[in-house]
Request: fold
Amino acid sequence: MNAFPLSSTQISDILGRLGYFRDLQQPSLRKLSADARQVTVRRDETVFAKGDPANSLYVVVNGQIKIFLPQANRAEKVVAMVGHGESFGIAALWLGLPHPANAIAKSDSHLLLIERDTLMNQARHDPLLAECLMADLSHRVMDLMHDMESCTPRSSIQRVSCFLLQHQPEAGIGGYDILLSTSKRDIAAKLNLTQETLSRMFQLLSKEGAIEVQGRLIRIVDSRKLLDFNQANCPPPGALPE
Amino acid sequence: MNAFPLSSTQISDILGRLGYFRDLQQPSLRKLSADARQVTVRRDETVFAKGDPANSLYVVVNGQIKIFLPQANRAEKVVAMVGHGESFGIAALWLGLPHPANAIAKSDSHLLLIERDTLMNQARHDPLLAECLMADLSHRVMDLMHDMESCTPRSSIQRVSCFLLQHQPEAGIGGYDILLSTSKRDIAAKLNLTQETLSRMFQLLSKEGAIEVQGRLIRIVDSRKLLDFNQANCPPPGALPE
DNA sequence: CGCGACTTTGAAGTAAATCAATGGGCGTGG
DNA sequence: CCACGCCCATTGATTTACTTCAAAGTCGCG
Reply:
């Protein structure tokens, strides 16, 4: 994890274009940039580990960071994939607690680090910043809820169909495409499945004519069938209607 | 869900004593209380369902609310148990999104409802309130991460031991007591287990001398053994008699 | 005392993990 | 341009841990 010297105004520039802080005013941006630094991390490099103190907010300029919980048996539960313009590490930072998960780079990445005190002080002075952060945290909560929803059902076919349905652009019954944000191995880890099981489920859904799989591109052909798989108690067709 | 008329100052009083808003100044409290209302919900009554619009923040004065994701097969995933002085519904509220989960009363409860606009406006004016809300949301994120950690491991014995270890007061190896906040059925639903499996795991841990169970009181006798169960790839060879 | 809710116990079936090996895609280097 | 190695994905065979179904046992409370 190499520090990368950039002028404060350069950093302020980058920050301002990041969507995350899009609505912020110049003075606030400059304050945040004052002692911010940019770092580069290489693929597979650890940004922080579970239990590390949370001293700064991480904003992803480019690349991709994987947030995951380490588990026994070398398994891991993927919590989030963080990409361009998104941030991570805010909850632990705000409470002054150790990080609850690991963060490693899936590809070479550039990150901006904003110091804890700087952020908290500025949030106290700028309601707009506080609003940004609230919105970010709220999104995190909603994401985690969706995650729970897709990784807790008993059967794997439900987990997978739930996941695919969550990526539906609008509540409708048309078809749509999903480009997986990461490898199927990591998607499996997000759904609490093995890659083998995920593969088999994709296959099953393909055979049923619900989806088509081409590498990382999943084409949802018939979302109604997905709904059936999601709701039904799996195999017995029409077993328990109410 | 019956509305319960209380004067604004009464509500302000209650709010101020709630820990949640402990640090707030009087003027802020009064603003929030202005159009707040108190409602009573009876045991098993639904406060809101997944998909309902989020119009207000809920603060629990007394009683207990269960937040859970409905699943196929009548199963449910318990996300949180909310008790005295805690709040729920903030994430969806802040983003103007529908609630991601269901909320029902586990026992007769009194709730304070604060309107969305009131809360957001006041947060813009009072940095202290914004801080409170940030801290609350951060806690929610941390809780959800812990939840993930305890409900995702493959084996049920790991789920249970992880859960028990998370309630350890300090990082140490001494013994301690846990008073379950709700029924074992709901605890099982939180860990994504059936009540039967949870019961069997408690039994196993008791036989191993790691814990003692007396109703809702769990006495952790030897947390090191719990750690073993948590880390090991299930039963260490020979440690699990038939 | 007796009812209902919660919990425990038992027996059986199954879905998913595990282990193991093959196949495909892609970049590097010969 | 092909050959090689690496990583990711797929496929198959086996095992077992968990759910499910069913029933008995406990606890608390009117």
Observations:
- Strands of chain A lie at 2-4, 37-41, 46-48, 56-70, 76-82, 87-88, 102-115, 176-179, 211-214, 217-220.
